[in-house]
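Exercise 4. Each item below gives a protein and its sequence. For each, produce the structure-token representation.

Item: Sodium:solute symporter (Marinobacter salinisoli).
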Amino acid sequence: MTTFEGALFWGFLLVYGVVMYVLSPKSKTADSFYKGADDQGNPVGQWSLTASIFISWIFAKSVTNAANLGAAYGVTGGLAYASYWLSIPVAGYIIYLIRTQTGARSLQDFLTSRFGRLAALAFAAAILIRLYNEVWSNTAVVGGYFGLPGDWEYYAAAMLFTLFTLAYSLKGGLRSSIFTDVIQAVVFVFFVGAVLFLIVPANDTSALLSNGEFRLDAGFDLLLVALLQMFSYPFHDPVLTDRGFVNKEKTMLKSFVVAGLLGFVAVFIFSLVGVHARLNGIEVMGNAPAAVGQSLGLAALFFMSVVMMTSAGSTLDSTFTSLAKSLAVDLPRLAQRASERLPSIRVGAVVMVIFAFAGNLPMFAGTDILKATTISGTMVMGLAPVFLFYGLTRWSPWSFHLSFWTGLGLGVLLAVGLIPASWAIGEGKYALLLGVNAYGFLLCSAGFLLPLVLRRLAGRSLAAGEA
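Answer:
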């Protein structure tokens, strides 16, 4: 960077951190810190909740991945990644059913009531892994606009960004997270529009929107993966699911539907950044937004960095608040070592501080941010039958465990390269991932249904014997 560029980028980072801290409200009660209520105990409003869901799920790594896939496969890649946002309305509807049919106040409450405490603990462990990944995978994207991995600027920017986000998260918890999400959503939309204003006129619009092919070896395999993971992926992300219990059922459902559709459109539109790179022969080197920004000049690169900071900030503060709730509230209740009363704010604050630093350790080791989505989504495929078919049983711990651990086992085998090539569907880059998710869904569903079938058969045999 030149001196002027450095002053611009570092200056914005400093201004962003100070403004977010000053504007974010301070939580005075545990209800406000952990549940997002205001000082009078009123729940989050519908449009604030919608904006929060929308922006907190548009991770910095997500828009980067969408642009990279656009560069690799054209609009097919963009649609593939944007399809993950359609899982938000799916999750909202299922949470709506859970709340109205079972009266559960959280997913942990629901799982405990239907599948036992051990099932809820296994689920809690899965979401903690997910939250841990969210820290480094977002701060690393921000660092990439200040330097390359290995450069001090890269790590300094990532850690400074972490400290700023931690500061206002400690100040207000979930209430602060949702409040700042609204601001970040507005800034995000404005600067994405500014980026498009630079990109669209530089291309033939029809070519920009039609580049790509719907073939398994051209990105369509990843689109099918996203559609399969739609029924499991959102449930291991408390950043999303915690927001399903902070307002009335119908208000929540409307917010989830609108936020999901807006997110789909926003992510697909941003993937056109990568399509622009593909059409113009720009070498993306794993970071299409940065590469395109550099090719279009300083203004475009600055716009890209603002998009990344706002999307990363909205996700990171939500991650901190979800970690605080998971470790300070949910896990102690599952262990039966806490009452229904919420813990003090200080307990959640300590959790945030620990994970702010521990969560960045993988960034220093270096890893692929796309794997934080695709691999973790595969490992929790066993959650799909649990939430889709829960109405078939009142109590069946074995159904949860046979489904959940089957999916987790397949995800681990895929991650370490032990899934045979014969499982692949097609010949594309994601052929094996598609095969594991398709066959895995069938195996997990069979695992979930097996105890129910055996119980019914045993009941019939008993009835026949009595007769």
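Check: The longest helix spans residues 152-199.
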